[in-house]
Specification:
The complex is a heterodimer of chains A (about 500) and B (about 350). Chain A folds into 3 domains: about 5-230, P-loop containing nucleotide triphosphate hydrolases (Rossmann fold, 3-Layer(aba) Sandwich); about 235-325 and about 405-500, 3-Layer(aba) Sandwich (Rossmann fold), CATH 3.40.50.300; about 340-400, no CATH class. Chain A is built from 18 helices and 21 strands. Chain A has helices spanning about 40-50, 70-75, 95-100, 110-125, 140-150, 170-185, 195-200, 225-230, 290-295, 320-325, 335, 345-350, 360-375, 390-400, 420-435, 445-455, 475-485, 490-495, and strands spanning about 5-10, 15-25, 30-35, 55-60, 65, 80, 155-160, 190-195, 205-210, 215-220, 250-260, 265-275, 275-280, 305-310, 310, 325-330, 410, 440-445, 455-460, 465, 470. The chains are: A alpha/beta (about 500), B mainly alpha (about 350).
Amino acid sequence: MDIEFSEINKSFGQVHANADISLKIPGGEIFGILGENGAGKSTLMKVLSGYINPDSGEISLGGEVSHISSPADAIGYGIGMLHQDPLDFPPMQVIENFVLGQKGRMILTYKERIKEFQTFQNKFGFSLDPRAYVESLTVGERQQLEILRLLWLGVRVLILDEPTTGISAQQKDKLFRALQLLAGEGKTIIFVSHKLEDVESLCDEVVVLRKGRKVGKVSPPYKTDQLIEMMFGKQITLLTPEPAVKERVTLELKDLVVEKYPLRIEDVNLQLKAGEVVGLSGMEGSGQDILLRACVGLLRPVAGQVIINGKDLSHKTYLEFMQNKVSYLPASRMEEGLVPGISIAEHFTLTGNTDRKLFIDKEQFRQKTQEKIDEYHVIGRPETPVESLSGGNQQRVALSLLKESLNILLLEHPTRGLDIESAIYMWEKLKERCKKETSIIFISADLEEILRYSDRVLVFFSGYVSKPLDSRHTSLEQLGQLIGGKGWEDELVAKESYEPSK
Amino acid sequence: MNPANKRTLSIVFQLGGLVLAILFVTLILLLTGANPLDVFKNLIVGAFGSTNRVASILVVWVPLTLVTCGLLVTFTTGLWNIGIEGQITIGAIFSTGIIRIFMDTSVSPILVIILSVIAGIAGGAIWAVLVGLLKTYGGVNEIFGGLGLNFIATALNIGLIFGAWSREGVASMSGTQPFPEVYWLPNFRSYNFSWVSIAISVIGIVIIFLLLTGTHFGLRLKAVGKGMKSAHRLGIPPKKHMLLAFLICGCFAGLTGALQVVGVYHRLIPSISSGYGFLGLMVAMLISYKAIWIAPIAFFFAALNIGGIQLPIVLQLDSTLSGVLQGSLVLFILLMQGVKQRVLGKS
């Protein structure tokens, strides 16, 4: 189905999120929409999928003017959107989520549905357990579920908003293969991203947006420099920062065993030095998050020790880790990171009451917040509620809320969903902390990020953990193979104390 | 849209809810064959027709204000303290118990009254913290825990009135033997309300207003209510704050129960909570949990309660009509808030 946007306008307060955007998307194509954070990509897609009504402009579908004013209308036209944060029902099972929203008989026959579901997912090479609970799935798996559900509903146009953030390289391959299959069947795929390589390797055509406006349309072969210039208006060069590792050990893991169904990680040994950065790499759901949570008291180890600055905190709570200056920045910013419904200034008030006062000095905290907003270049005001900030700005706020002097900082996907500029900025700030002897452990699905910023890397593969690799002597290919489960024999032999039990 | 316009529109929607509620009640009255104008006139006359009646409004205003104060704390923390009725009842029982213990001793009556009120506060707090413990450590949702404890409190109350504390000779629904007058809170002139209760309520409102809008503790409660996981990550222990919210709400509920005993009924009666707990839930929802509105809206609801009393006598209508009006008011105003959000945009 051909889609044509004509002169779409949408403003949020002062921000012109979409300005006179006209665009034609032919059916049967994988069409890329590229732009940095806040370029207006998501807004345009939410207009198409009925979540937002435009201020002016119209959309034609297959040559006819459409009237989309709700997501249900959009589904009626065969348009389905896969959101950056999956809109599913975590406490329910995969099969229940799949069946939801389908028109059907009164009585559900799960046996049949499961059979249908299995056949359907095999077509795309997905392997979800229909009886698993959605909350136990990784982001990548939840995404697969949502794609299956939308396709089963008969969607002919599939919109994917930043689908490759937070999923592993393997899941990305699966996703891309599925999308190519669908395009081959004549479905229209709209692929929204800020990741150049994804767009370059997948899309038949790309349109670039910047600050709410259409910059231009490009066809393959793509020139990366040209795309970057269209996105940012200027060239950005990446620098590899200097390591700042000291000899002092800040965190020590001794024969640590952690478990969270269905994974069990055994005998992890690590000595983290002050100022050191350790990257955790691997397919999503290979155990990185479990280890990270065990390092900050959010998950109790089954055996072994977690020692912070010589103190054994193995079975202590998160708050005790906090008191020992260990901090944790989770991937889900609005669920675990920031409190929705309260302002930036209120966040600083919550975390900044160090002298345990009873009453709030509002003016003092407003000023302090304004200083931080300026320092971290947050686009927002002290009284802005955090949920109305863009993802990149939320991440900046979360970062600026961290205490100044930390021993250890644990990060889950610190630059997920951020544009290149924000990501570079984020790491500049983190490396500043390393110079002040803060150690960092971070999870990332982006291998380049892992190699560029880590001093050492731990690779995870379905519950196995490699010995720490020196990132200067590790290549992207090596890392990719380990993540995919190759080359582990050497790893296991090289590490004397490591005896995987299976 | 600029803020001034937004505020005007907001008020328009609130008033719209009020109008719709009145229309809805009018419709019900027409269906039952009553003359709506007569009814509304009688409601107003019933509430404000004489100084005695205005005094009666204040008698209702005190407990309603106090429970609403407490409920704002639990609502702010994202908790539904349905168990407030039981907390009022237990407060009343504790308070009665203390007076019964010291009634025939030489301890100064004023001291006994003070002790009795403190005991009431403690009783309500214990009952509320039980709900909180069940939720935080037992995994029992506070709605179910509260509901269960409400039944237990009622049973205990009835059991005492007809059992251990029953009047000599005849146990009766009219309650326990009234206390001697020295153990009553002093009434204002010949009216049946006490300045002490009014003063305590006003202090209660001020405390809750300051707590929720000006203190670090209040902001932490709000953070736990809006995003428990995030709050925990930012270093706020959610369980502790939930328990504290229940504790504070329980104190207010227990205080309410105690004041009903020493200030209004001067004995323990079966329906000592009089449904003020549930009515308080409605007031709290109606004012969107903003402390500044407690006093006027509680007064309005109290006036409706008193205004409804004479309906059966004058118009042969059931006095629960006030309840219908209160309930539909809350429903329609909440409904209009939903409509407003749709109109102002989902963004």
